[in-house]
Amino acid sequence: MEFRLLTQEEYDRKLREVIVGTEGHHARVQNVRDNRATIGWGYTLNRTDNVSTWRQAGIELTAEQNAVLERVDRAPWARKTDIALTFDKVLSEQESDRLLRASIHEYEAPAVASGMPLSEERVAVVSVTYNRGPGVMRRHPVMDAIRDGDRAEAWFQMRYNCWGSNLDAESGLRKRRFAEAEIFGLYDDPEAVSVEEAAAVYAMYREHHAEIDRVERRFGLTVDGVEARPNRIAHANRDYPDIVAIYGEVQTIADSLEPARSRLLAHLRERYPALAGELTEERFNAGLIDPGRFPREFALAAGEGAQPGNPALAPRMDGPAGPPPGPFQHGHLNAAVAALASGDAEQADRALRRLADSPEGQAFIRMGEDALARGEEAAREALAR
Fold first, then answer.
1. What pairing do the DSSP bridges indicate for beta strands 26-31 and 37-40?
2. Is 114 within 8 Å of 139 (Cβ atoms)?
3. Mean pLDDT for the chain?
4. Residue 44 forms beta bridges with which residues?
5. What is d(CA 285, CA 260) in angstroms, rounded to the nearest whole number?
6. Rounded CA gap, 182 and 175, in Å?
């Protein structure tokens, strides 16, 4: 994974824009349906260092207000919210900015511990951490994926598996994670996707397809175009205009997969020119590229040697696109014919083996076995006569 690096000034500005854009401003302390006391740009008073943090922020408080913060700091966790909700300070946006700067360092900790440089990816991770808490994020699989350099897995974890556990707030949190995953990015550079990166994206998609489809069906737009009501992807693009202005609109899962799909198809057309007529953009929507099925020899290891389980294409042999070009109404047979015509005997052999493994091929084999059995029975009857 190659991070999209930022200067300190760029990083500070973008991090503020994302947190301000997703949190909104609370001039007065309130319980925002999470049983915590929140003020400013999402600052929660449920902590033990309020007095020092507010002092560092340089925000002027009355003696009574400072006394409330002292009581919150000393209180057991079960009592902090009730005490904090008596805090009567009214914050301006400028004061909220100072409070954000004074408190953000603790939310940087998981990203720093994972070795993340100042980058767009770190902006996304710190925004999620600001919402979820550093303790949760230190143990979250998204950080494991980042440490492993697995961008596709980190993107999946952020978009689909990082919303939290507050069911009352799930819909809004899903909206926010859609936006933060867009900031993180599925590709190092969507305009220059390598074969290896495209393969990794589709390996992730195959592994998590069921969960991706479940979440998109409830909150977004599935790869097949089934739209949730409400559609939280559309809401993210509506409700976070400043983030959209910087990073572009939140993409659907189909649009997110598009750079990988295009790169894989282009690679396969170059590598297997005899099958170029089958490997068209029109015949493969994003969901039809299946890393575990036909043709397995199209596995996209860069260079030589397809490995089982590497991404491959799974063309649909029926449906609106119709059968692939060729003399037969079955794609595997046409693939074999095309391979033989190009002199690729190994490719033809693999296509025929795929035919044998397919439901149609198995039915054909059973028909042959039945015909052979009937012939043998007829021969035995003839001899008996």
1. antiparallel
2. no
3. 85
4. 38
5. 11
6. 11
CA distance 87 to 382: 102
Helices (H) and strands (E) in the chain, counts: 19, 3
Enter the DSSP assignment of 226: P
CB contact at 8 A, 77 and 12: no
DSSP 118: S
**Residue 40: strand pairing partners:** 26
CA–CA separation, 257 vs 202, rounded Å?
A: 8
Whether the predicted pLDDT of 319 surpasses 50:
no
Model confidence pTM above 0.70: yes
DSSP letter for each residue of 164-182: -S-GGGHHHHHHHHHHHHH
Alpha-carbon distance of 25 to 90, in angstroms, equals 11
Residue 252, both tokens: 């659907």
Phi and psi (nearest 5°) for 260? -70, -45
The answer to whether the peptide bond before residue 259 is cis (omega within 30 degrees of 0) is no
Strand order, beta sheet including 26-31: 26-31, 37-40, 43-44
Q: Which residue, among 275, 281, 282, 265, has the nearest Cα to 333 in the 3D structure?
A: 275
Cβ atoms of 347 and 235 closer than 8 Å: no
| Rg of the chain taking only CA atoms, in angstroms | 28
Q: What residue segments make up the domains of the chain, in order of their start?
A: 1-103, 116-287, 316-385
How much is the pLDDT for 317? 31
Phi first, then psi: give them for residue 381, nearest 5 degrees: -65, -40
Encoding tokens for residue 281? 């953009």
Task: Name the pLDDT band for 12 (thresholds 50, 70, 90).
Answer: very high
Could you tell me which of 64, 59, 147, 85 has the C-alpha nearest to residue 110?
Answer: 147
Query: By three-state DSSP, how is residue 295 classified?
Result: coil
What DSSP string describes 317-338? Answer: SSSTT-SPSSSSSSHHHHHHHH
